[in-house]
From TrEMBL:
Catalytic activity, reaction form: L-glutamate = D-glutamate
Keywords per UniProt: Cell shape, Cell wall biogenesis/degradation, Isomerase, Peptidoglycan synthesis
Pfam families hit by this protein: Asp_Glu_race (PF01177)
Any one GO BP annotation for this protein: cell wall organization
Name of the protein in question: Glutamate racemase
Organism this protein belongs to: Desulforamulus profundi
Gene Ontology molecular function: glutamate racemase activity
EC number: 5.1.1.3
Amino acid sequence: MTQRQPIGVFDSGVGGLSVAKEIRRLLPLEDLIYYADSAYCPYGEKDPELIRQRERTIVEFLLSKGAKLIVVACNTASSAGLEELRKLFTVPIVGMEPGVKPAVAATRSGKIGVLATGVTIAGDRFASLVKRYAENTKVITQPARAWWS
């Protein structure tokens, strides 16, 4: 009998458990491995290079456990290093991103507010989302320092 390959999910803490729970709901027959990087939690205002180093280490760990897919269940980690991870590893890697597109679609005032970590707001990924989906929308950002996991 062959062993099934799990889906690896990680976050800097326990916030990504909601993502793992949704994966479990949608894919109940899949095995999951959850990695909470509590030693470096929160990622929120850490140097992006440190976050990328942590991501590489965690992905290598999850791959050593046979993961067939990696879910980066953290906006900050996705902003800091998702593209690099996809270049370094051949396994599919899925990330998170702020809901700019649905917020723009829902706004009636032509304005949206985004609460995210400073790393997320300052990142190229967020700037690309704003450029792509919110060109004619006023985007108000606020670094949220007190509530990430």
